[in-house]
What does this fold into?
Amino acid sequence: MATCPAYPTSPPRPHWWQRAWVRYGALSTLLAISGLVILALVREQTGTQGFLVGLGLAVLPVPLLIAAFRWLDRVDPGPWRNLLFCFAWGACAAALIAIVANSFATRWIATATADPVGADTLGATVIAPVVEESAKAAAVLLVFLFRRRDFTGIVDGVVVAGVTATGFAFTENILYLGTAFGTDQLTGDRGIASVTAATFFVRVVLSPFAHPLFTVLTGIGFGIAALSAGRHRLRRALLPVAGLLLAMGVHALWNGSTAFGEFGFFAVYAAFMVPSFGLLTWLVIWTRQRELGTVRAELPAYVAAGWLAPAEPYALGSMRARRIARRYARRHAGREGARAVARYEVYATSVAFLRQRGRRGRAGADFTVRERHLLDALWHLRDVARPALEHAARATAPPASVPRPVPPWAYPYGGAPGAYGPAPAPAPSGPYGSPAPHPPYVPYAPYMPYAPYAPYASYAPHEAPDPDRPWSRDARPPLRRRPG
It folds into this structure.
């Protein structure tokens, strides 16, 4: 009797570390090799003692800068692996490219012109800005191309570019501080009058944001390109180039400030760098407030569909309410509860941004699948997150208006309101004393979220998706159809 052939079975799924090696193995190997090479080059130029001293001093501003960029990205935080890649690229690959290219170009110019002093000036003001900004912009371009779903606007561009420049400045500070320490070892200078102290004051205390400020201009160009619609291809191609050219120009002005006289550096710092830093800081904070406004504007549609509670759009649209919600969850459910609320906030923000892109026609063909994955993740975390967010909404909502006492001459016959006729109806009010909201208007039917139905709770819950990639193929839940 003939036997039926066995159905082919799928191979076992590889472990997470095997998938990570397949995805990031080549790039990680490249960064590791460049890191070893740059370590050897810096140690050769500064010596062992100079390298250790420079490393200890250069690491001081790094946590503050990383924390500042992470704070800017609190509304819709990107995955940590993107920031680690950007910092490693800036500290290893970009620094190696800059050291090799700048040294080669400066030596070639000095040999061709027989003017070493002029070659150093030309290399610092022309060659270095072009090479360094191009090397740092490569990391922004890689994230923009291969992590497109994590790169959705100006804030993402600022964070990616700023972290890359922070890594580059870290390696460059090691080189400059280590060289200054070696000079002090030869001259015998100590204390405040030493070259090391002057270099530390200028590069770490006075201008730690210089390199991030330059590269942030490139990140803003990529961020505006990410916001542009798909039909504006020319704009999406020219905006990053314009940001890169602007970053090169500002970098050249900064490097050439010493050629403007004895106080040229301080004049450029006070007249240009500080106002530019303040203007970019205002732009990023204003953009973050617009993102919070998007959350408050898009989530009420999901309240009407039954996915969210009425208080959640208000709480998720306020950074103070989010912080209070995490603190409440930590106090009542421990660290796991606080992490669950944080994941809930990330998923809800992603849903709001996805819906906004869908209304503008930039969400992609898999909009419904990605939306359902995020809503499933919210549904799994609702038991922990909703009480915390409702508490935060009550704690941060404006107090309800208290009616003023009625003066005695308003009722000359001694009657109370309603005694001589019906009492006036109170003004309609929404939750927490706010005006009654209008019913949410859903202009596009294809982007209307699915309402939860009764049999949904009877199904076995699937594993919640990864918070870094909530719509990943690996975390895709099985399709469920409404019975009947």
